[in-house]
Write a structure and sequence with these properties.
The structure is a homodimer of 398-residue chains. Helix content of chain A is 43%, strand content 18%. Chain A has 398 residues and is an alpha/beta fold. Chain A has two domains: 269 residues, Queuine tRNA-ribosyltransferase-like (TIM Barrel), CATH 3.20.20; 81 residues, no CATH class. Chain A has an eight-stranded parallel sheet with strand order 4-14-13-12-11-10-6-5. Chain A has a three-stranded antiparallel sheet with strand order 1-2-3.
Chain lengths: 398, 398
């Protein structure tokens, strides 16, 4: 027990013999997260349109909030005065904050980037803002989430070897500074764990080198970053296949900013435990739903007089209370409730998919199920099947 | 028992000896409404931003939906196919639909108005739409609410004697036609009650003549209309004071489109039982809250670091989960949750005010309480006190 007073630890309870998938329990100061688990994104301290009691009802266990947005408005000092993120958001379960790195590099007008950090222009008032690894840890310390993320350099083009190499090396240097600042501020014993982030773009060798560098720090968990930008599905999947299994089995693995049901199946099959993505709520607000019969656009005229639930196999409140025709009416008339009810359903769908994976893992049937699920939910010619864990694919050919 | 098979009846359980206020129970096919009661407005078949399970949790008993909006989109045939309003909205409690008259006269570009009905232009597609008393009953029959409203002519200027006289006479003629069509379609025995509407603008004599004409039909309830347009508070209050007590005591009295806490106190004191208004949700979406210490704008900078609940005396989920500072943050960043949480709070405030009136009526203390409530919540020079029921005012001068 190298850190006897840390409130964080991970138990891998059930590991699939056919794939790299595992079910586990991640212990945090605000409760246990049963993994694999999906974290809804509460960018500005709110999962858009969904109150926290509804998230609890939906089976959400851990939420994510964005340091970049909260640093700009209302500022970490205000959040701290209002009870830290848990009090602020009215959520007493575990919370994770990203470091702001991803948003700085993807959303901002960057003024300067150097070895020390990044200067950018606030989208709120045009002010010059400076983030460094130390500052990102300090801001997150004030926000007060259970898990905080290292400040990383997420390369904009994962196929540009020069850019990726620079960004990856910088990410490693910055992690060392984050670790130092995190320890100075009290470390895990104070109730906040720091996760490091693997970069390396689409380059296997850089991904593995990054895993080595990041795991040279003994942290409560590790993340795979930079997979939701750039060249899309294939390079993301390769990066996950290379990096995730190389991370220590006794720590949670968090795949950042991913994704879709197909992505979860693939990533869990390669040993990932935690996920976050805006997909369920963003799709919900644009009237798209994830269902057992595929993705659905609720604005479509064919639903006008359809009295069936959105997904007859679904037990969420949207599906147990309303018809497709009613949901279409809400979408067509621009009612707030459309986005709310579709976000609820999508979040339930994501949570239920991951809960089903946990059940299959506990029952020792994940390998066969993952193949069947893929066959049932995606076309048999789906590229998903090509990237499913090796043994699972062999089983399929039995 | 002139209508032995009607599922509708009203019991006046407690009548205040000092004022005209009474607590009662209105029986409908979808349950009992404890009166006085506030009905949230679900214009297009949704109370904006609030799912039905949340309305139930807030203590809402009966909802209102708008025939005008639902006739335009999605159309009454679609609503009927999707289970009628109860199935459509996912609300198994009582529902009332207005007749569309108010919206036709206030929102539409009217093409023609004559003794037979009104032609207007659809705001959705510009189509010519025709509503007559018979048609309004037919549309509402398909929508399937528990209570449907007579098609009335609501005068645009309650102070224009000629216009008001014409509109009032027309309202009486149209009621006779609504009653006939309602009986032909099965009447109350089929599970829908028809309420008549008193018009008469700001003219006491016309109001009383209208009460006489409307109550010449034996209906399950009567409404006072035309009080939310025109010259505002004073003429509205006089109209209520004249018309409401003149309506039969053994039937529910519904004051249409009103209003504010002050309005409820005044109207209940003059014997009104049912209310509807968009105030709680519309104010909520524009970041205004009703509280025990007055009306509050949540965008105000003074709330930025305020860790107190919005209303420390309130038990709603908004006040038990969040701080004023958090609510202000949601308002300032334009988050959907701002309007949702403030609408929840306002609806709870309205429901709780009417529940408190019911408790005071049951305890026989309404008269004294209404004066104290007025003194506590409004300035002692409030015009409210001038129009409170006579006996209550006398008590105050004791």
């Amino acid at each position: 027990m190298s850190e006897p007073t840390s409130p964080f630890h991970f138990e891998a309870l059930h590991t699939c013999p056919d794939t790299g998938a595992r079910a586990g329990r991640f212990h945090t100061p605000h409760g246990i997260v049963e993994t694999p688990a999906f974290m809804p994104v509460g960018t500005r301290g709110t999962v858009k349109g969904i109150p926290p009691w509804e998230l609890r009802e939906l089976g959400s266990q851990m939420l994510l909030a964005n340091t970049y947005h909260l640093h700009l408005r209302p500022g970490e000092d205000v959040v701290a005065e209002l009870g830290g993120l848990h009090g602020f958001m009215g959520w007493d379960g575990p919370i994770l904050t990203d470091s702001g790195g991803y948003q700085v590099f993807s959303l901002s007008e960057i003024r300067r980037i150097d070895e020390d950090g990044v200067s950018f222009k606030s989208v709120v008032d045009g002010d010059r803002i400076r983030l460094t690894p130390e500052r990102a840890v300090e801001v997150q310390t004030k926000l007060g989430a259970d898990v905080i993320m290292a400040f990383d350099h997420c390369p904009s083009n994962p196929l540009d070897r020069d850019e990726v190499e620079t960004a990856t090396r910088r990410t490693h240097d910055w992690l060392a500074r984050c670790v130092r600042r995190h320890r100075e501020l009290g470390g895990e014993e104070r109730g906040q764990a720091l996760f490091g982030i693997v970069q390396g773009g689409a380059f296997e060798e850089l991904r593995l080198r990054s895993v080595e560098a990041i795991t040279s720090h003994d942290l409560a968990g590790y993340a795979v970053g930079g997979v939701s930008v750039g060249e899309g599905r294939e390079s993301m999947r390769r990066a996950v296949e290379v990096a995730a299994p190389a991370l220590p089995a006794e720590k949670p693995r968090y795949l950042m900013g991913i994704g879709t049901p197909e992505d979860f199946l693939h990533a869990v099959g390669h040993g990932c435990d935690l996920f976050d993505c805006v997909t369920p709520t963003r799709h919900g607000r644009t009237h798209q739903a994830f269902t057992s019969y595929g993705r659905v656009n609720l604005r479509n005229a064919k639903w006008e007089r359809d009295a069936e639930p959105l997904d007859p196999t679904c037990g969420c409140r949207t599906c147990t209370h309303f018809s497709r025709g009613y949901l279409r009416h809400l979408c067509k008339t621009g009612e707030m409730l459309a986005g709310i009810l579709l976000s609820l359903h999508n979040l339930h769908y994501f949570n239920e998919l991951l809960a089903e994976m946990r059940r299959q893992l506990a029952a020792g049937t994940f390998g066969a199920w993952s193949v069947k699920y893929g066959v049932r939910h995606f076309s048999s010619a789906s590229p998903l099947l090509e990237v499913l864990p090796r043994v699972a694919k062999e089983k399929k050919s039995d």
